[in-house]
């Protein structure tokens, strides 16, 4: 994405009343080094500063919780490696994240008919019902929405999203880290 397109991206976030962020596996320690991830998370925190936002992550490495992002505006429904409670475990306990999930659902209800900017960053096809499909549905239903899907290999959009979606074929960590704020 060229710098003028990144400036448009920045402006879309600034103009939005609300920002919904999805963090996928490109932001995991399995795909990027810890220092690069923290830099990108903190750049994202600067971008979202002063905004009404909510963030979902499918990552279980807990690194996001070490960033400057507001912890009360995040939910990690796939679990936490630090606690040993992750979605891939046979005895995964969902109850620990449900209060924050309820807060997210209440926040999401407030996005109806408001200028919403959706940032889907590095979300692939792991657990697509948590972020990818759910965010497409929100964008489809909200006529005042713009959605950015940033992924190195899976930035494609459905035909229904062509008027409100912008695919960015770039690694999400690199993309966020290179934003000029």
Textual characterization of the structure:
With 181 residues, the protein is α/β, with parallel strands linked by helices. It is 31% helix and 19% strand. It contains 5 helices and 8 strands, in the order αβαββββαβαββα. A 6-stranded parallel sheet has the order 3-2-1-6-7-8, with helices on both faces. The longest helix is centred in the N-terminal third of the chain and has 15 residues, at 34-48.
List keywords for this structure.
181 residues; six-stranded parallel β-sheet; globular; two-stranded antiparallel ribbon
Major pleated sheet:
6 strands, parallel
N-to-C SSE string, H for helix and E for strand = HEHEEEEHEHEEH
Beta-strand portion reads: 15-25%
Q: Rounded to an integer, what's the Rg over CA atoms? A: 15 Å
Can you list the strand order of the major beta sheet? Answer: 3-2-1-6-7-8
Number of strands: 8
Q: Which ranges are low-confidence, i.e. pLDDT below 50, for 5 or more consecutive residues?
A: none
Q: What's the short version?
A:
The protein contains 5 helices and 8 strands. It has 181 residues and is of the alpha/beta class.
How would you summarize the topology of this molecule?
Layout: H1 3-15, E1 18-23, H2 34-48, E2 52-57, E3 74-75, E4 79-80, E5 85-86, H3 98-109, E6 116-121, H4 132-141, E7 145-150, E8 165-168, H5 172-177
Parallel strand pairs: 1-2, 1-6, 2-3, 6-7, 7-8
Antiparallel strand pairs: 4-5
């Amino acid at each position: 994405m060229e710098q003028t397109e990144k400036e448009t991206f920045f402006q879309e976030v600034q103009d939005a009343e609300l920002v919904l962020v999805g963090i996928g596996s490109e932001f995991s320690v399995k795909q990027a080094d810890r220092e690069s991830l923290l830099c990108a998370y903190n750049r994202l925190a600067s971008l979202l500063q002063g905004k009404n936002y909510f963030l979902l992550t499918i990552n279980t490495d807990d690194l996001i919780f070490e960033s400057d992002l507001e912890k009360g505006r995040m939910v990690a429904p796939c679990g936490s490696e630090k606690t040993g409670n992750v979605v891939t475990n046979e005895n995964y306990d969902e109850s620990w994240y449900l209060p924050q999930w309820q807060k997210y659902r209440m926040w999401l209800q407030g996005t109806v008919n408001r200028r919403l900017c959706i940032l889907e960053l590095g979300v692939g096809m792991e657990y697509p019902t948590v972020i990818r499909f759910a965010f497409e549905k929100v964008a489809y239903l909200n006529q005042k929405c713009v959605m950015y899907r940033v992924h190195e290999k899976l930035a494609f959009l459905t035909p229904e999203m062509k008027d409100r979606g912008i695919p960015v074929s770039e690694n999400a960590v690199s993309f966020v880290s290179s934003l000029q704020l």
